[in-house]
Amino acid sequence: MPAIIKNNQVVDDQWTLLEADAQLEQALHTQQAIIPLALWQQHKEQLQAVQPLGIWLEAGQAIEDIVDDLTHFAVIALNFPAFTDGRHFSSARLLRERYSYNGEIRAIGDVLRDQLFFMQRCGFDAYAIRTDRCPTDALQSLTELSVTYQAAHDQSLPLYRRRSA
Fold first, then answer.
1. Do 105 and 86 form a contact (C-beta atoms < 8 A)?
2. Fold observed for domain 3-164
């Protein structure tokens, strides 16, 4: 079982991430499956009965495509195809702040140690680190910075407002 970082600790991943070309039968017969958005869109009626269920989105897919269905998902995994593609930082923040999603938001794909602190500030709470990296080492990056200046999901006030209070 692969290890992930979840809620600031390294744990065994209990979920199965299905491939982008996964079929309905595979999703129905896999315990704790994280399915691609396309599969959900094609077979929404059949998949609504599957619990727990996760979904994953590519970097170009919009959170707004699943907003009406958020209650069906225990996990929303956001794929980073390259470490230079940061579109899903905004997606995580929208999920937490605009749509009040309280489930797990997981970063998948090309996820590196240097990104975790900033991902956490945007609302991510689980990270599937690249397989060639050590999740225990990456976990340390979540505590390396002690002061933040900007407001974010994890701190609603910027530093100057916190100091003046």
1. no
2. TIM Barrel (3.20.20)
